[in-house]
Amino acid sequence: MRASLIQIDVDEGEPVGSRRRRVAALVREQSGADLVVLPELWTTGAFAYEEFGREAEPLEGPTFETMAKAASDAGVWLHAGSIPERAPSGGGATGDGTLYNTSLVFSPSGELAAAYRKIHRFGFDKGEAVLMGAGRDLVTVRLPGTTLGVATCYDLRFPELFRGLVDAGAETLVIPAGWPERRRAHWTLLAQARAVENQAFVLACGTAGTHAGVPQAGHSIVVDPWGEVLAQAGPGEEVLTADIDPAKVAATREQFPALKDRVLGLEPPRHQG
């Protein structure tokens, strides 16, 4: 299985429409791949908070249409990164116009295979954490030969989310991100940790450039179920391609069956003495 991660340089001077067209062309160039992955919030920049509302779009908006066509033209499974999605107004649990950080996954025919609203929002008491709503659902996508578990950026710091994805059948964990350069060491460390503890492939695709004054880490990475780094990008815009063998997940889990030794439902600690 060939995976291509497109580490996009999000230039603040490049109009969003122009970037959509440029990225669609990059996707079409990956026609020999099986899976193509884009970064988080590449239309706006993950730290360009003031752009979230201005550039928010409905789920089936311009980015949806452009990426669906690109996936179909290239004949690839496409994780199209994430967009600032504005839920429709009109009542109901998701009909209040809330913004979400939403990932889109398309089949090789250009059909929407899955949408994932980011569960863990970054920013603590500002930025994404206050501007966007939180998703609630774990999302997996069945591909020929493997099942994707979908997460986004800050989710990488929460191992329980990935345990849930593995319990749902995930064998390849796909993580688009807009990770800052100042915490790049965490990016690599956590990507390897999620691969080792879940005995799964990790495909983590970040952005390059600078978002609202925040330099991006780049260094997209592909990690195998033993934690070995199969490929890693540099700091700039780059297409990172790696061939992975989905059968290695089952082989690893059989050879070193640590997941079978999980102990669930532990009681909280009791004070003694």
TrEMBL record:
<dbReference type="InterPro" id="IPR003010">
    <property type="entry name" value="C-N_Hydrolase"/>
</dbReference>
<feature type="domain" description="CN hydrolase">
    <location>
        <begin position="1"/>
        <end position="246"/>
    </location>
</feature>
<protein>
    <submittedName>
        <fullName>Putative amidohydrolase</fullName>
    </submittedName>
</protein>
<comment type="similarity">
    <text>Belongs to the carbon-nitrogen hydrolase superfamily. NIT1/NIT2 family.</text>
</comment>
<dbReference type="GO" id="GO:0016787">
    <property type="term" value="F:hydrolase activity"/>
</dbReference>
<dbReference type="InterPro" id="IPR036526">
    <property type="entry name" value="C-N_Hydrolase_sf"/>
</dbReference>
<dbReference type="InterPro" id="IPR001110">
    <property type="entry name" value="UPF0012_CS"/>
</dbReference>
<keyword id="KW-0378">Hydrolase</keyword>
<dbReference type="Pfam" id="PF00795">
    <property type="entry name" value="CN_hydrolase"/>
</dbReference>
